[in-house]
Amino acid sequence: MRYSLWISRVSHAVTITALFSLPFLLPLGFFFFVGIFAALGLILYEHSLVREGDLSMLNVAFFNMNGYISVTVFVFTLLDALV
């Protein structure tokens, strides 16, 4: 259990790092960064829901929060592209 939480943290850190590196490859601006910071906040909240000894919120953390994160990144990236 402990290792799976660390794998999740490392995976999310890699994801955020990759998202922050995208503006070096694509013409992304302010709204994209707002979306990434919002996604970072949602990821931190997601990790606060699950503890090593308490998996009662695992489904909410995994399914719901990852859905919210992906929609947030999409909407802000689209907004950045349109504005």
Which shape, going by the Cα principal axes? elongated
Which structural class fits the helix and strand makeup? mainly alpha
Secondary-structure element string: HHH
Helix percent band: over 70%
Main beta sheet: strand number and arrangement?
Answer: none
Number-wise, the strands total 0
Tally of structural domains: 1
Alpha carbon gyration radius: 14 Å
Low confidence ranges: none
Mean pLDDT value = 91
Strand content: under 5%
The end-to-end span amounts to 44 Å
Instruction: Specify the number of helices.
Output: 3
How does this model look, in words?
Helix content is 78%, strand content 0%. By secondary structure, the chain is mainly α. The chain starts with a helix and ends with a helix. The model has no long low-confidence stretch (mean pLDDT 91).
List the helices and strands and how they pair.
Elements: H1 2-21, H2 30-49, H3 58-82
Helix pairs in contact: 1-2, 2-3
Task: Provide a brief overview of the structure.
By secondary structure, this protein is mainly alpha-helical. The protein contains 3 helices and no strands.
